[in-house]
Write a structure and sequence with these properties.
It comes from Brevibacillus panacihumi. This protein is α+β, with helices and mostly antiparallel strands. 24% of the residues lie in helices and 41% in strands. Strands 1-5-6-7-4 form a five-stranded antiparallel β-sheet. Strands 2-3 form a two-stranded antiparallel sheet. It is flat and about 40 Å long.
Length: 136
């Protein structure tokens, strides 16, 4: 990774809750609020924005671990701000504390860990797995 990424580096994104973010199973909406899946998606996106400026051309990052709690609702039309703050950087890992907040309440909190790897090596690995899957 390029130098400069350190604890305290922060990224934020804000999204408006839409009905396609509601939790739905078998075509039935469970609650008219932002789903946990949607919340985690945007927490990961904020974390990705933390690392993007520091990746070298041959590097890529991917989600390795999430430890998230969904602690409050966000209803349709509300804006949710997702914030990722880098708390740990190693050669192969970046850990961010992530939060999701409306102007009214906290929606989620936790950590998101990304693995940093050589994207060409990982592409070859994915291709080998795909070829194996295609033969079955």
């Amino acid at each position: 990774m390029n130098s400069g990424l350190q604890p305290g580096t922060t990224a934020e994104i804000t999204v408006k809750v839409t009905s396609d973010m509601f939790p739905a199973f078998d075509g039935q909406v469970v609650h008219p609020v932002m789903s946990t899946v949607s919340m985690i998606y945007y927490m990961e996106m904020a974390g990705r924005h933390v690392i993007l400026p520091y990746l070298e051309d041959h590097e890529e990052g991917c989600g390795l671990a999430v430890d998230i709690k969904h602690v409050g609702p966000a209803v349709e039309g509300q804006e949710v701000t997702f914030r990722a703050v880098c708390v740990e950087v190693t050669e192969k890992r970046v850990v961010c504390e992530v939060t999701a907040d409306t102007t009214r309440n906290r929606v989620g909190v936790g950590t998101f860990t990304q693995a940093i790897f050589n994207k060409h090596d990982m592409s070859r690995r994915f291709q080998a797995i795909q070829e194996e899957a295609d033969t079955k």
